[in-house]
C-alpha cells in the first residue's frame, strides 16, 4: 500500500522528487522524536523511524503490522481511543494526546503525540515525543505543592504570606484563630494586619527592621484580636522581594506572657514579703559564710545586708551560744532534707543582743542556693515573756513553798505534787512525798474519817491527827477541794499543823483564869489601898502620941523601953502598910536622887522577913556608890518581887546575894553586847542559888501573867512589874540563868549626879525647929490634934482647922501672917489640892505641904507628883516632919 502511494508522487516529478525523498528519508531517520505512519483501520504501524529503536528499544520489524494496543499502557488505551474518536468526529485535522508506551524492557514511557489522520488514505501520520522526564517532574511538583499546602494549612504554627505592604495573601487556620476568626475566609476578608497592631509605632519599627535585614526572628508584638481582646504574638518573617511577598509565622504567646507576668508579680510579691515579714531570710554557705540576708535584717538588727555578707555567720552570735550553734550547724550541714530549729542570741549593730529562732534547712545540693537556707525569727519578746513566766513560776513556787503549812495535790490519796511546807511538817522530803499514799501522813485513828471525806468530796476545813515520819502524832487541820488537773479531777489539800493553835486555845483558858486572878488582885489592891489609908491615919496618931510620951518620960524610967517597943511595932506596921500600898500599886512615884545602898539598907529587914529563915541574905554594897534618880518605893518593890521569886526558886535552904556597883559602858561595849546602852550606871545585882530557868522560861520571864507556878500561887506579874519600873527609870535588866544553876538578875539604873540640896541621909538625924506660923488642915480630929502638938513642940505657931471651910475662914481673918499650909489631901468637902489653890489665889506667898496616907490621883499628876509640890507620907514622925518643914520654909 505504501509502495503504490510513493510511486504516485515519484511518477509526477521524478528527479526533484528523488532528491526530496532522499532528504525526507534522511530527516525521518535522524529525528529524535518518534515518527510513524499507521493504518487507521487496523490500528497497526506501517512505518516507524529509528527513534523507536532508540527510545522504546524495538527494531522496526518488531513493530510493523503490529497493533498499537499491544504497546499502549492498558490504562491509557481507552482514553486514547476516546480522544482520537472525539477529535475525529469533530473533524479535527490534528489530534494531540498523551499516553504511555511499553518499552522493550517492560518499562513505560510517556509519549506526547501529534497525530494527523488522513481518512481518505486510511492512514495516520504521527509524531511522538518522549515526555517521561517532563511527566515525572510535573508529578513531583504536584506532590510537593500538595505537601506544602497540607503543611501550610495544617500547621500548628500560624503561617502567613503577605504582600510587601502587608496585604494578606495567604494564611492558615491557626493564624485566623490567633486573629480571632472562625475561618480562614473570614479572616482574609476582614483582618487587616496593618491596623491590628496595638502599638503602630512598634509595627513601623518591625517593618523597617524586616526590610533592612530581610528577616526577623521572634519579634514580640501585641495585637488586637477580632473580639477586641489583646494577644501577645511572636513574629518570625522573611521578605522575598523577587516574589514581592513576606512569609512568616506567628505564635500566640499570650499565655506565656501572662504566666511571665504572674511570675513577675509573684516574684515582686515574694520580694515584698521577704522585705516585709518580720523575719530575716538568710543563706549561709557550708563554710559558715553569710551569702544572703534579706533586707529586713536592717529593721531587725540594724545591720545592712552588705554589712554582714561575706562575713562569718559566727561573728554576730552571742559568745555563750557559739558552741551550741556550731553543733546545730554541723547537724544541719550533714543532714539533707531536714528542717532544724535552734535558738540563740544575735548581735544588733548597737551591740545589744536579740533572741532569735533560727529555722534552717540544708540546701547545699541545690544549685540555686548551695548552702543553708534559714530564717531568723525574732523571739526576744517571747523570751522575755518566757523569762517572766519562769520568774513568776519561781515566785509562785517560792510562795507555794513559803506558805505556812503544807499544800498537796493528790489523786485518790497518791500525792502528785506538794510543797516544802508539807515536807517540813511531816519530816519526809518532797521527793519521798511525791508518789506516796497521803493517808500515811494521817494517824491511824483519823484515817477512816479522812478517807470518807476524800470519797465524799468534802470541802470544809476539819481537824484530824497527823502522823510525822518519826511516829509523832500532832493535831492538824485539813481543807480540801476538788480541782481539775491535767485532765482529771484531783484533790488539793491544805495541811496545817495546829499544835500551836491548840496550845493557844489552852493558853486562852489559862489567860482567862489569870485575868480573873488579876481582877481579884485589883479588887484586893483597892481594898488594901483603902484600908491602908485609914490604917495610916491610925498609925499617925499612935506614932505621934508615942513620940510625945517619949519626950515626957525619963529615959531611965522602966516605961521608956516599953514605949520604945510600942513605937517600933507601930513603925513596923507603917512599913507593912507601905508594902501593901506598893503591892496594890496605889502609891504615887516621886523620884528622888538617892543612893541605892541606903534604900536597900533600909529594906534588908523586911526582905529577910520575906525570904524566911532558911535562906541566907548576903548584902554586898559598893562603897562610894553613885546616885540614881528613882522613887525609893520602886526599889523596894523591885527587891521585894525578886526576893519572893528567889524564895520560890530555892527548895529548902539557900542563899540570896544582893550587891551594888558602879558600871560604865562605852560605845564599843554596847555594840558588842546586845541590850546594853552606853553611859554610867549603878548596878544592883540579885542572885540566888535556886532551881534556875530553862531558855524558854527566861524568854517569857517578863511577860505579864507568865508564871510556872501553880494556880493561886503565882500571878506572873512580879517580873513584869520589875521590868516596867526599870524601863520607867531608863534602866535595863539582864538575866543569867541555867536550870539547876541558880539565877542572877543585873539591874542597871542610870547614874544621876547628886545635888547638894538633896536630903543627906544621916543616921544621926537632927530635929530642926522653927517659929513660923502654920495653918494645919486635917479632917481626922486625932491627927489634927497630935500633929498640932508635934508642930508646937517644934516651935511653930499652929492654926488648926478641922475642915477646908474653916481653914479658908482662918486665912481670911488671921491677924498674923501665915507662912505655911499643911493640908490632908483626901477630905470629904473639898480636897487638899483645891483648898491650896483657893488659898494661894488670895495669898500667893503661902507655902504648901500635902500629907496623905493614901496618895490618890487627886494630887498626882500623871502618876508623878508635880515637881515643886511638897508631900509627906502618913504616918510620919516628928523628926520626918521637922526636916520636911525646914526644906520648904528655908527655900
Ligand atoms: P510569878 O512569880 O507570879 O510566877 P513572876 O513574873 O514573878 O511571876 O515570875 C515569872 C516566872 O519566872 C516564875 O513563875 C518563874 O518560873 C520564873 N522565875 C522568876 N524568878 C525566878 C528565879 N529567881 N528563879 C527561877 N525562876 C524564876
Ligand atoms: Mg513572882
Give an account of the 3D structure.
There is one protein chain. Helices cover 43% and strands 26% of the residues. It is of the alpha+beta class and 891 residues long. The strands form eight sheets. A five-stranded antiparallel sheet has the order 2-1-5-4-3, sandwiched between helices. The N and C termini lie far apart (215 Å).
Quick tags:
891 residues; rod-shaped; binds magnesium ion; 29 helices; five-stranded antiparallel β-sheet; alpha+beta; binds adenosine-5'-diphosphate
Helicity, as a percent range: 40-55%
Number of strands: 34
Bound molecules: adenosine-5'-diphosphate, magnesium ion
Overall mean confidence score, pLDDT: 84
Note the topology.
Blueprint: H1 2-12, H2 14-30, E1 34-39, E2 44-48, H3 51-56, H4 60-63, H5 74-90, E3 95-102, E4 108-118, E5 123-130, H6 132-154, E6 158-163, E7 168-171, H7 173-179, H8 184-190, H9 193-196, H10 200-213, E8 215-224, E9 230-240, E10 245-252, H11 254-276, E11 280-284, E12 290-293, H12 296-301, H13 305-308, H14 322-334, E13 339-347, E14 353-363, E15 371-378, H15 380-402, E16 406-411, E17 414-418, H16 420-426, H17 430-433, H18 444-456, E18 462-467, E19 473-485, E20 488-497, H19 499-552, H20 558-583, E21 592-594, H21 596-611, E22 615-620, E23 628-630, H22 632-649, E24 654-665, H23 667-672, E25 679-688, H24 695-700, H25 718-728, E26 732-737, E27 743-750, E28 773-777, H26 781-793, E29 797-801, H27 804-813, E30 820-824, H28 832-842, E31 847-852, E32 860-861, E33 864-865, E34 870-873, H29 878-889
Parallel strand pairs: 22-24, 28-29, 28-30, 30-31, 31-34
Antiparallel strand pairs: 1-2, 1-5, 3-4, 4-5, 6-7, 6-10, 8-9, 9-10, 11-12, 11-15, 13-14, 14-15, 16-17, 16-20, 18-19, 19-20, 21-23, 24-25, 25-27, 26-27, 32-33
Helix pairs in contact: 1-2, 7-8, 19-20, 19-26, 20-22, 21-22, 22-25, 27-28
The structure holds adenosine-5'-diphosphate (ADP) and magnesium ion.
Adenosine-5'-diphosphate binds at residues 641, 645-646, 649, 688, 690-693, 697, 701, 706-709, 714-720, 743.
Amino acid at each position: 500500500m505504501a509502495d503504490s502511494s510513493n510511486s504516485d508522487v515519484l511518477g509526477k516529478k521524478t528527479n526533484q522528487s528523488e532528491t526530496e525523498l532522499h532528504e525526507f528519508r534522511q530527516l525521518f531517520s535522524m529525528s529524535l522524536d518518534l515518527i510513524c505512519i499507521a493504518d487507521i483501520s487496523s490500528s497497526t504501524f506501517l512505518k516507524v523511524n529509528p527513534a523507536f529503536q532508540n527510545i522504546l528499544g524495538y527494531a522496526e520489524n518488531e513493530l510493523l503490522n503490529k497493533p498499537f494496543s499491544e504497546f499502549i499502557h492498558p490504562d491509557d488505551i481507552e482514553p486514547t481511543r476516546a480522544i482520537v474518536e472525539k477529535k475525529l468526529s469533530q473533524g479535527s485535522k490534528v489530534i494531540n494526546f498523551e499516553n504511555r508506551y511499553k518499552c522493550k524492557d517492560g518499562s513505560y514511557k510517556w509519549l506526547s503525540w501529534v497525530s494527523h489522520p488522513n481518512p481518505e488514505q486510511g492512514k495516520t501520520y504521527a509524531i511522538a515525543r518522549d515526555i517521561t522526564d517532563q511527566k515525572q517532574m510535573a508529578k513531583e511538583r504536584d506532590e510537593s505543592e500538595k505537601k506544602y499546602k497540607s503543611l501550610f494549612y495544617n500547621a500548628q504554627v500560624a503561617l502567613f504570606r503577605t504582600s510587601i505592604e502587608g496585604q494578606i495573601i495567604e494564611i492558615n487556620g491557626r493564624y485566623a484563630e490567633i486573629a480571632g476568626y472562625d475561618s480562614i475566609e473570614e479572616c482574609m476578608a476582614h483582618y487587616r494586619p496593618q491596623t491590628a497592631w496595638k502599638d503602630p509605632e512598634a509595627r513601623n519599627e518591625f517593618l523597617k527592621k524586616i526590610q533592612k535585614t530581610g528577616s526577623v526572628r521572634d519579634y514580640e508584638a501585641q495585637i488586637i484580636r477580632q473580639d477586641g481582646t489583646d494577644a501577645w504574638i511572636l513574629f518570625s518573617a522573611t521578605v522575598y522581594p523577587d516574589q514581592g511577598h513576606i512569609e512568616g509565622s506567628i505564635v500566640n504567646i499570650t499565655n506565656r506572657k501572662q504566666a511571665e507576668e504572674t511570675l513577675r508579680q509573684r516574684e515582686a510579691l515574694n520580694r515584698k514579703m521577704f522585705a516585709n515579714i518580720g523575719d530575716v531570710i538568710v543563706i549561709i554557705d557550708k563554710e559558715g559564710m553569710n551569702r544572703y540576708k534579706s533586707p529586713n535584717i536592717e529593721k531587725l538588727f540594724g545591720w545592712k545586708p552588705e554589712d554582714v555578707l561575706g562575713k562569718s555567720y559566727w561573728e554576730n552570735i552571742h559568745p555563750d551560744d557559739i558552741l551550741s550553734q556550731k553543733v546545730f550547724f554541723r547537724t544541719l550541714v550533714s543532714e539533707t532534707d531536714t528542717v532544724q530549729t535552734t535558738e540563740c542570741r544575735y548581735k544588733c549593730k548597737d551591740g545589744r543582743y536579740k533572741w532569735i529562732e533560727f529555722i534552717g534547712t540544708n540546701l547545699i545540693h541545690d544549685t540555686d542556693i548551695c548552702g543553708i537556707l534559714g530564717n531568723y525569727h525574732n523571739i526576744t519578746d517571747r523570751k522575755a515573756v518566757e523569762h517572766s513566766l519562769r520568774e513568776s513560776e519561781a515566785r509562785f513556787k517560792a510562795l507555794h513553798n513559803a506558805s505556812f503549812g503544807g499544800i498537796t495535790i493528790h489523786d485518790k490519796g497518791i500525792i502528785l505534787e506538794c510543797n516544802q511546807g508539807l515536807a517540813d511538817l511531816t519530816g519526809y522530803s518532797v521527793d519521798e512525798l511525791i508518789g506516796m499514799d497521803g493517808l500515811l501522813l494521817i494517824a491511824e485513828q483519823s484515817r477512816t474519817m479522812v478517807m470518807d471525806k476524800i470519797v465524799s468530796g468534802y470541802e470544809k476545813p476539819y481537824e484530824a491527827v497527823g502522823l510525822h515520819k518519826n511516829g509523832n502524832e500532832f493535831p492538824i487541820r485539813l481543807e480540801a477541794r476538788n480541782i481539775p488537773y491535767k485532765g482529771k479531777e484531783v484533790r488539793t489539800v491544805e495541811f496545817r499543823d495546829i499544835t500551836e493553835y491548840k496550845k493557844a486555845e489552852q493558853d486562852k483558858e489559862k489567860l482567862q483564869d489569870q485575868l480573873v486572878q488579876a481582877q481579884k488582885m485589883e479588887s484586893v489592891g483597892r481594898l488594901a489601898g483603902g484600908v491602908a489609908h485609914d490604917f495610916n491615919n491610925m498609925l499617925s496618931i499612935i506614932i505621934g502620941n508615942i513620940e510625945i510620951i517619949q519626950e515626957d518620960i525619963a529615959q531611965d524610967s522602966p516605961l521608956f523601953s516599953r514605949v520604945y517597943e510600942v513605937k517600933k511595932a507601930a513603925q513596923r506596921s507603917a512599913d507593912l502598910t507601905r508594902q501593901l500600898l506598893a503591892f496594890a500599886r496605889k502609891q504615887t512615884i516621886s523620884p528622888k536622887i538617892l543612893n541605892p545602898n541606903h534604900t536597900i539598907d533600909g529594906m534588908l529587914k523586911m526582905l529577910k522577913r520575906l525570904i524566911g529563915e532558911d535562906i541566907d541574905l548576903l548584902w554586898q554594897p559598893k562603897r562610894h556608890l553613885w546616885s540614881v534618880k528613882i522613887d525609893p518605893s520602886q526599889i523596894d518593890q523591885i527587891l521585894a518581887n525578886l526576893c519572893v521569886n528567889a524564895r520560890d526558886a530555892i527548895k529548902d535552904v539557900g542563899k540570896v546575894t544582893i550587891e551594888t556597883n558602879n558600871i560604865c559602858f562605852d560605845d564599843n561595849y554596847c555594840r558588842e553586847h546586845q541590850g546594853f546602852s552606853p553611859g554610867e550606871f549603878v548596878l544592883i545585882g540579885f542572885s540566888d542559888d535556886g532551881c534556875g530557868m530553862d531558855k524558854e522560861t527566861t524568854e517569857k520571864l517578863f511577860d505579864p501573867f507568865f508564871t510556872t507556878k501553880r494556880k493561886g500561887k503565882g500571878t506572873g506579874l512580879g517580873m513584869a512589874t520589875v521590868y516596867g519600873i526599870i524601863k520607867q527609870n531608863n534602866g535595863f535588866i539582864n538575866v543569867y540563868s541555867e536550870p539547876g544553876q541558880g539565877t542572877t538578875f543585873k539591874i542597871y539604873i542610870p547614874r544621876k549626879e547628886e545635888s547638894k540640896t538633896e536630903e543627906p541621909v544621916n543616921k544621926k538625924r537632927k530635929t530642926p525647929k522653927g517659929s513660923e506660923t502654920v495653918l494645919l488642915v486635917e479632917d481626922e480630929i486625932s491627927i489634927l490634934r497630935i500633929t498640932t502638938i508635934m508642930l508646937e513642940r517644934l516651935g511653930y505657931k499652929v492654926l488648926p482647922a478641922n475642915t477646908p471651910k474653916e481653914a479658908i475662914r482662918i486665912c481670911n481673918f488671921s491677924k498674923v501672917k501665915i507662912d505655911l499650909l499643911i493640908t490632908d489631901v483626901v477630905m470629904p468637902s473639898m480636897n487638899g489640892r483645891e483648898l491650896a489653890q483657893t488659898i494661894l489665889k488670895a495669898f500667893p506667898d503661902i507655902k504648901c505641904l500635902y500629907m496623905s496616907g493614901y496618895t490618890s490621883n487627886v494630887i498626882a499628876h500623871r502618876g508623878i507628883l508635880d515637881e515643886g509640890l511638897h508631900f509627906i507620907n502618913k504616918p510620919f514622925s516628928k523628926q520626918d516632919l521637922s526636916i520636911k518643914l525646914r526644906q520648904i520654909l528655908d527655900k
